[in-house]
Amino acid sequence: MIADLPLWLSILVSAGVLAGALLTMAGCLGLVRLRDFYLRIHAPTMGTSMGGGLILLASAIYFTLTQQRLVVHEIAIFLFVTVTTPVTLMLLARATLFRDRAAGFTATGPDAAPKERPEVAD
Amino acid sequence: MKRILPHPVLAGFLLILWLVLQQSAGLGHILLGGAIAIVASLAAHAVIPEPVTLRRPLKFVQLLVVAGIDIIRSNLAVLSVLLHPRPRPTAGFIEMKLELTNTFGLAILACILTATPGSAWLEYDREKSSVLIHVFDLVDANEWARTIKARYETLLLEVFQ
């Protein structure tokens, strides 16, 4: 099946998969390296938006060409991921906001920088 | 008609999703998918009593294109911050008032802001109709609020309200 694909298309598909995977990895490393919770929620989004999107796009191109018909269930995957991410994110974020407010850190005003909030060791 | 199909937009969307997942537009799949879509939209009626209306579908497509471009730009911006040996983003919170009150419009705005790596939708207060957003690389809070209003909220208001 791979032999049927012209060279430039194989390069395009592999570039898509690789770029997506690298972006996802950069996001995961960001999750480890950033310093507090509110910063960390941003990094993995790279994997669920553009990283995942590039991998799915490459997959759709590859299977559409090798199976000689339109393969688009990748769109459904992207849709499900995009629609469900905010649910978990809000759950985690609101739990953290609740804990911060209970502990007396009103870090949520427009002027308050999150670095004023002390590191929570857990 | 309204009793069999309380949510025509949802049912149509479910039918299309079913056909995409089945990879076929054969008559059997359309009939089965249609039946599933009607049953599911009837079930959804118990949870979502208000009707879903897409006022201007073309504006909705425009919104998806604008959001897609912004998501790509934000990915590259966050990546450039993370590539630093010691990433020091100037993060901050924004609390902004929204004119948009439609549940579906708010849900879509939450999806867009969350899918953008540079911003995260944290909390919506229905009484004050204000939303708390956390921004990864915040330079000017008012500028951000204006951008969200101009790029997404006006389009969503036209589509849903």
UniProtKB/TrEMBL annotation, chain A:
- Give the domain of life: Bacteria
UniProt keyword annotations, A-Z: Membrane, Transmembrane, Transmembrane helix
Membrane-traversing stretches: 6-32, 44-65, 71-92
- Signal peptide coordinates: none
Database matches in InterPro entries: PhaG_MnhG_YufB (IPR005133)
Q: Name one GO molecular function term.
A: sodium:proton antiporter activity
**The keyword Transmembrane helix belongs to this UniProt entry's keyword annotation:** yes
The protein's name in its UniProt record: Monovalent cation/H+ antiporter subunit G
Biological source species = Devosia geojensis
**Source taxonomy:** Bacteria, Pseudomonadati, Pseudomonadota, Alphaproteobacteria, Hyphomicrobiales
TrEMBL record, chain B:
Location of the protein in the cell: Cell membrane
Q: Which GO terms describe its cellular component?
A: plasma membrane
Q: Which UniProt keywords apply?
A: Cell membrane, Membrane, Transmembrane, Transmembrane helix
InterPro entries assigned: Cation_antiport_E
Signal peptide span per the entry?
Answer: none
Q: How does it sit in the membrane?
A: Multi-pass membrane protein
Its main localization is membrane
* Single Gene Ontology MF annotation: monoatomic cation transmembrane transporter activity
Q: Which family does it belong to?
A: Belongs to the CPA3 antiporters (TC 2.A.63) subunit E family.
Q: What is this protein called?
A: Monovalent cation/H+ antiporter subunit E
Organism this protein belongs to: Devosia geojensis
